[in-house]
Design brief:
- The protein contains three helices and seven strands, in the order E-H-H-E-E-E-E-E-E-H.
- With about 160 residues, it is α+β, with helices and mostly antiparallel strands.
- It has a single domain, classed as START domain (Alpha-D-Glucose-1,6-Bisphosphate, Chain A, domain 4, 2-Layer Sandwich), CATH 3.30.530.
């Protein structure tokens, strides 16, 4: 039976809101290729970077990392609200028999306490059937695939 498991995370960054939003929405074309320690190349399968764009991100082999590639779909870009949404829809470690997609929605807000911003990230794991997966296992899978890339984008933007 299909199910949805969701959670939210708030991340504080020292990156100005406009700069981080620009780098998040342009990640496939400008930022991801700079992650040369983990990314071999990015292939655009469909689209021009806007909603509906499909990207195949091919990773370099690394110890402890099973995934060789991940397919992302851009779901939403809202300039006025500083929202960006994408979904993991395929890849070598993406079990399509159990998972429909993993959706990430990022909303950036000003941080009055510093020059940076607050990233509110909501994650939805859309499963085809729960089987024997605990909430903790689902959280672990979504954290590994989504936040790993987001953290690298923040690190590059801070440089």
């Amino acid at each position: 039976m299909a199910f949805v498991h969701s959670f939210q995370v708030e991340r504080l960054t020292f990156v100005p809101l406009d700069k981080l939003f620009r780098d998040i929405k342009r990640n496939a074309f400008h930022v991801i290729p700079k992650l040369d320690q983990i990314i071999l190349r990015v292939q655009t399968l469909q689209g021009d970077g806007g909603p509906g764009t499909l990207l195949n991100i091919i990773k370099k082999p690394q110890e402890g990392i099973i995934s060789k590639n991940v397919v992302l779909k851009v779901d939403e870009i809202d300039e006025a609200e500083k929202k960006y949404g994408y979904s993991v829809v395929g890849g070598t470690d993406f079990d399509e028999t159990m998972t429909e997609r993993i959706s990430y929605k990022i909303k950036l807000e000003e941080n009055d306490d510093c020059d940076g911003c607050i990233a509110n990230i909501s994650v939805e794991f859309h499963g085809r059937e729960r089987r024997n997966m605990s909430d903790e296992q689902i959280d672990e899978q979504t954290n590994v695939q989504g936040f790993y890339l987001f953290d690298h984008i923040i690190n590059l933007t801070e440089e």
